[in-house]
Amino acid sequence: MPADIRSAYTAEMAAADTHNSDSGRWEHLERAHILSQPYPWLHTRNHFAMLALALRQRDRRKALGRIVRVIVAAPGSALGRFPEGNTGRTAAGLTTPMQVPDDLAQILADRA
Question: Which domain of life, per UniProt (predicted)?
Answer without folding.
Answer: Bacteria
